[in-house]
Structures are given as structure tokens and as C-alpha cells.
Amino acid sequence: MAAERSCGRRPGFQGGRSLWMVAAVQFLLLLSISARKDISHGNVKGRSSSRTEASTGHPVNLQVTKDLVVMDNGMVQVSLSNPGGYVVAIKYGGMDNLLEAHNKANDRGYLDVVWNWPEESSKIERVAGTKFSIITQTQDIVEISFLRTWEKSSAAYVSPFIIDQRYIMRRGISGFYYYTIFEHQKQWPAFRIDQARVVFKTNGEQFQFMAISDYKQRVMPTPDDRTTGKPLAYPEAVLLTHPSNPDLKGEVDDKYQYSSESQDTRVHGWISKDPVVGFWMISTSDEFRSGGPVKQELTSHVGPTTINTFMSTHYVGREMETYFADGEPWKKVFGPFLVYLNSDPHQGNYSALWEDAKRQMLIDAESWPYNFTQSEDFPPSSQRGTVTGQLLIRDRYISKKDLWADSAYVGLAAPGEAGSWQTETKGYQFWARADTSGSFTITNVRAGAYNLYAWVPGTVGDYKYETTVTVTPGSLIKLGSLVYESPRSGPTLWEIGYPDRTAAEFHVPNPSPLLLNKLYVNLKPDWFRQYGLWERYGELYPEDDLVFTVGTSKYQKDWFFAHVTRNKGNSTFEPTTWQVKFELRDVSPKETYTLQLALASATFSEIQVRFNDPKMGKPLFTTMLIGSDNAIARHGIHGVHHFYSIQVPGSYLQKGSNTLYLTQARARGLFEGVMYDYLRLEGPPNSL
Ligand SMILES: *[C@@H]1O[C@H](CO)[C@@H](O)[C@H](O)[C@H]1NC(C)=O
Ligand SMILES: *[C@@H]1O[C@H](CO)[C@@H](O)[C@H](O)[C@H]1NC(C)=O
Ligand SMILES: *[C@@H]1O[C@H](CO)[C@@H](O)[C@H](O)[C@H]1NC(C)=O
């Protein structure tokens, strides 16, 4: 133990990558890492252990007054309102308050929920604690709670939950941890919740540089720049016409351009000007987030605002609304996450701060699930289980042997239909990527009953393992080989796109030079995040709609990424019909062909399918009205995935030239439309 402590480093900390650090910052990090080791040796529950000064740093101090609770570990001081539990000040790195001191005390760092009673409109509640308590307090760690419960008398404005907000400060960690526990009790009434998130608003004079990934980093406009700018067709988007920073003139600002999939949202935040300080949201697990690993949420955006979203309808829409029945008991832990602060006082090197924040994220990822939280509702690693297996794909029209489900997404979520995880909000989800052989290991799974779900990039459809997987504390469940028979009725006659639940492989047009977000100009894979791309359809196809000819057209350049409406001006819009032209050498009129149709997104749309007769009154198939994910307007390259296997009687087809007509029949507005993921026409079965 002594040797371990004096070493005080984690594997990977040493070496070239850390050389950039100024001595002071390196020292702080060493402290933080050794402090973590100390705590690991049994000091969590309140006993104090002896230690040498060099390995520790300041003890954690807690001061409680009538109005304020202050946690301080010599590096960071966090002040919370008592008993509300709002973060009112974060003192760090020579700044008295990293948060926006001009804002009211409940508008700097807070939890809010969007909810409503049945038949009533939604309301936003900024959650205010009513009872403060100290959960644990030692020299190494302080955990405090701001609790609020619910009574019928406050039903007009308080959502029917017990909400326990927990803050943790640890010795030697430059920041603080947060988690919250929501509980709806048995005897409580029905209601609906659409969103729950934690928001931090940092000092706007100081924090103007935002970083959300290695490549997505930029100087941001201010809220005033948005006010003086020109609102665009989608309300969140503004053209900056009079920004305080002239460099930003002519750019578009829209918070949705900075959204990110849950699986990629591990660290994001802001850097201040003088002193140079980083404010980071580090969230290493998404087990508590709704909708699985590709659910998109906001990250950081103009404010300066930094968000950690637990549940929301963004990029999914109505299907994500969460209804609680009368008397439905429910409890869920959101978090924990870390608000991490760093500084580079001598050099003011922004990328050094970003790299350091990523390093801290990796350290935290290694120690997930955290073992210093006190709530029994957040189980440690020893009370969780592991599920392993190997996923194979069976598609006899591709291979006689089963194929490895290379890089499959495999996850455990609440029992439901195949694919139900993408709108599932009440339970926890645990996802892993399979290796090239389809082998997967899902670790740190909370005890409970799950279905195992999967999808495989390059293969259509959704897999569900029919047997319920029941995870018990400490269990290792080996599922062995699982076979996914992907949708398939006959040999491929033609296909368009790549089945991966996004439209990224299709033609994403050049943005209008008058509507740029300069961040994305040189980031080709992110071009879909530019504003107004939907308008380019009308410019590319001013009179006639898109025609794709199998054999000569290339989906990468000839298939527009979104099937949108035609803007006729004067707020009128028209349905559009795309054509796929293809040749058939011969047709079996008595047999059934199949059109596999996968959509990456849909917003108040209806896709009608016709073959060879565009005027056919009743389409061969219609999706009916589907979707409200708004991914086109919000610059996502996917929203909710929809999949259809459409039977096509051979009598609808003919020898020689054929045309598939795809009509997006709903055209009330600019943002209605679908994004395709993949289309495949299959011949009749047994023609193998
Ligand atoms: C800033 O930090 C980055 C990343 O650590 C490093 O590569 C770069 O050399 C540093 N720049 C300066 C001027 O120190
Ligand atoms: C707590 O977690 C840390 C970091 O993962 C680990 O090193 C330590 O052994 C754990 N302590 C206990 C008591 O499980
Ligand atoms: C647009 O609507 C106005 C008012 O109804 C009408 O006068 C005008 O002719 C319309 N323009 C077009 C292009 O249809």
C-alpha cells in the first residue's frame, strides 16, 4: 500500500503526452490521482486515515450557514444555496466565480425538468431543494444532499417526484461530482415528463471559447449577438449581423449545431480569457441516459451554457415522451458526472486544457462506476454484473456460413420490442461495441431484467434476443453464440446506401455561403450540421424531382440526404416524388418481391411507395404519418430509425424498365421530410 501510494500514478499517466504540462498543473493532477488512491483504501465511510502531506492536498472543508453551503478543498470552492441546492458560485484559478454572477442565484447552476399533468400544457420547473443534509464528511470527501419531496398542495408547479440532488467534493480533485435520484411513489398521480437536465451558465465576459470535441472548438458569439442578429426560419437559428466580435459577422449560430450522440458526449465545456481556466462537463457513462448510444442531445452552446441532459425528446419527438401511470412506482439515478476545472496559468494554452480535460475523462472512465458515492441507489462495481456473447449474422443470400457481426452495437435495455431501446426512458441502458468477430462484453450492468438488443453497421434491421436476461449482483452471464437473421426474402436486385441508421453516406450539399457556421467549413463529415441545407434541394431540382438510375447513379452524389418538400414561396409547400429507375431481365408475376426500406429520420411525413404507375390512386404501401424527430431542422444526420419490409407482388413489376416512385406526401412546412438510411429491392425467395 505504501509503495502504491508513493507511486501515486495510474498507468498511462507518465510519458510524452504529459510533458506539455506546466509544473504546477502537473503537480495538481498528481495530487488528485494520489488522493483517489487514498480514498480507495477504505476511508469512504467516515474514518480518517493517516497520510503524508505530500500525497494529499488540503482536506475538504464544509461550511454551512443559513443561506449558503460552501465546500472547499483548497483548489476549488463551490457555494450552494441552502436549502435550494443551486450552484451559486465556483471559485477557482484566480476567479471568484466561474459562473455568471449577473444571473439570479437560481440561474447559474441548476437542475430543471419539463413535465405536465394529463391534459395540461408543459411547464418547466427549476428544482429547488427544501432540506439540506450532510451525507458524509471526512477530510477526504464531503457528500451533501438537497432534497425536495412532493405534496398535493404544491402540485400546480412541483413535479410529482422526490428529488435528491447530491454534490460531492473530494480531496485533491479539481472540481465536484453531482448525481440526482428521482422517485415517483406508489400512491402518486399520473403525469408526463419530457426532459430533465443539469445546466451551468458560466461568466459570459470570460468564457468565449467552447470545445466539444477534438475538432469542434471555436470562439462563440454572445447572447446579445443573437439578439441583434437576424432570426432565421427555424427559431433557434440566428444570422449574426452585428456581433460584438466582428470576426463572427455573417455566421449562423444555432445550439443544435453542437449537439452530439450520447456515445460521443464524454467531455465538453468552455475556456476563459484571463485568467485562462477550463470549465468541463465530464460524463463518462451514459447508462442513465434515455434512448441508447446514438440518441442526440445538446452539449454546450451560446450562453455560455453547458448542459448534461438525462432525458429529452430532442431528435426523437413525441415517441420519447415519458408517461407515468397513476400509482406507478419508479426510481432512477442520473449521473454521477464531474464538473472539472483546470488551468494553465503560465502559458494560457487552450489545447493543453482540452487535452488535460480529456485525460481526466479517461481517468474517470477507468474508475466507473464510482465507488465513493453514498447512495444505496448507485451500486458499486461489485453489485453489478457482466454479460458476454458473440453475435453472428445469418443471411443465406450473402453467405452459406453465419457471418461475424463486426462492430455490432449490443446493449441491454428494458424489455420491449426489437428497437424499443431508442425511445426507452425509464430504465438504464448498457451498451458495448462488438469486436470484428462479433464478440461483446457488457460490463457494470445493474442488477435487473433486460432484453438484449443489437444492430450491426452494414446489416439492416434490429436484433432482439428473445430470452430475458436477468443480471444479479456479481454475475457473469455468458450467452454464447447468438444468431441474428437479418431481414431478407430473396437475392439483392439493387441497393441504395449503407445500412447504418444515418443518411451520412448520401449527398450532403454545399451550404449556402451566406449561412455558414465556419467551424464546419473544413469538417466535411460534419457538413450536415450547416444551416439551411434543406433549401438546397429546390436549387438542385428546381422543376423536376430527383431521379436515381440504378447502375449509373451513385448514391454518394446523386441521392440527396433528405427527402424534403418543395418550397413554392408564400409559405406554401408541395409533396415531392423521387424515382428509382431500374431494369429487370425477367419478372415472375406470381411471386413476391421485397423492398427493404430503412429510414434514418422522419418528421411529420408519409412515404408512399408505388411501382411503375405514379398515378396509382392507392399506393402499394404507405408508412402513414410518422415521426416528429425534427432531425432535418436541427442538423442531425439521423433521428429515429424506422424499418419496413414491403412486399411487392411480381405483377407490379415488368420485364425491362421499371420505376419505383417514393412520394413524401405531407407538405405543410419547410422542415417536413425523411432521411433514408438504406433501400434494397429483393427478388422472390427460393431463387437462391
Ligand atoms: C499547447 O498544448 C498542446 C497540447 O498539449 C501542445 O501540443 C502545444 O505544443 C502547446 N503549445 C504551446 C505554445 O505550448
Ligand atoms: C475505488 O475505485 C478506485 C478507482 O477505480 C480503485 O482504485 C479502488 O480500488 C476502489 N476502491 C474500492 C474500495 O473498491
Ligand atoms: C403571395 O401571396 C400574396 C398575398 O396573398 C399574393 O398577392 C401574391 O401574388 C402571392 N405570390 C405568389 C408568388 O404566389
UniProtKB/TrEMBL annotation:
Pfam families: CBM-like, fn3_3, Rhamnogal_lyase
Record has Lyase as a keyword: yes
Enzyme class: lyase
Ranges of residues in domain Rhamnogalacturonan lyase: 406-478, 492-681
Main localization, broad class: secreted
Documented EC number(s): 4.2.2.23
Family: Belongs to the polysaccharide lyase 4 family.
Protein name per Swiss-Prot or TrEMBL: rhamnogalacturonan endolyase
Chain's gene name: LOC116198728
